[in-house]
Design goal:
25% strand; binds S-adenosylmethionine
Length: 209
């Protein structure tokens, strides 16, 4: 709840504050978010859930990459506990003309039946969740068999972690000391892949049901 209070009060400034990472880390985060589009199956209606969607920056990036017309086959759902963040997301989706269902919900108890989504995305909250295993279990529950779960959060690659620059980054913001949450993955997670994006400053864990 402490985090949610903070997100509620900083929601309007969130996108601007996140941009500070760009200069500091030498990245273009909005551009990198466009990679989420790579997980969208090539044909048919695709149901996609963004867990802890915040200001819906992931959906904004996807529409930027694919174009609005190509997004009409996407059935987009975003959940977050912070109403402040969801309000900013709603305005953004409106201004982009993007249809998206935004729901206030807790990552540990998402209001959907099992096997609902082709793709479940999550970026930016995992490292601060009090029960990472339960959050990952819930994401796997909601993805359909053969569907994909993608989890991205702060965490330096082993190479950057060992460098002087890496030590400086961690000293400035300890979230970057986080490691991919492999020990918390549900036992049913298959085809687990780990790599590092955003100039090797964020881990990406991808798995399937
Ligand atoms: C760092 S922001 C990331 C937002 C967005 N995914 C992004 O990449 O910009 C973390 C988000 O997690 C949400 N959050 C934190 N704890 C949550 C919980 N237990 N259930 C759902 N959302 C939560 C916050 O409200 C916030 O919007």
């Amino acid at each position: 709840m402490k985090w949610i209070d903070e997100y509620d009060s900083s929601a309007k400034d969130y996108d601007r504050l996140v941009k500070l990472y760009d200069d500091w880390l030498g990245i273009d985060m909005m551009h990198e978010r466009e990679q989420f589009a790579d997980y969208i199956p090539a044909e048919g209606v695709v149901r996609m859930l963004d867990v802890s969607t915040g200001t819906a920056a992931n959906f904004e990036a996807i529409v930027h990459r694919l174009g609005a017309a190509a997004c009409t086959r996407l059935d987009l759902h975003g959940v977050d506990l912070s109403m402040g963040m969801l309000r900013v997301a709603r305005e953004k989706m409106r201004s982009l003309g993007l249809d998206c269902l935004l729901v206030q919900a807790n990552v540990y108890n998402l209001p959907y039946p099992d096997d609902q989504f082709d793709v479940v995305l999550h970026s930016g909250g995992m490292n601060t969740f009090s029960n990472i295993a339960a959050a990952l279990e819930e994401m796997l529950r909601l993805v359909r068999p053969e569907g994909t779960v993608v989890v991205v959060d702060e965490g330096l690659s082993p190479r950057v972690r060992a460098s002087e620059r890496g030590r400086e980054v961690i000293e400035t913001n300890n979230l970057f000391a986080s490691r991919p949450p492999l020990e918390h993955l549900p036992s049913k997670a298959r085809d687990v892949k780990v790599d590092y994006i955003m100039n090797e400053t964020f881990y990406r864990v991808v798995f399937r049901k």
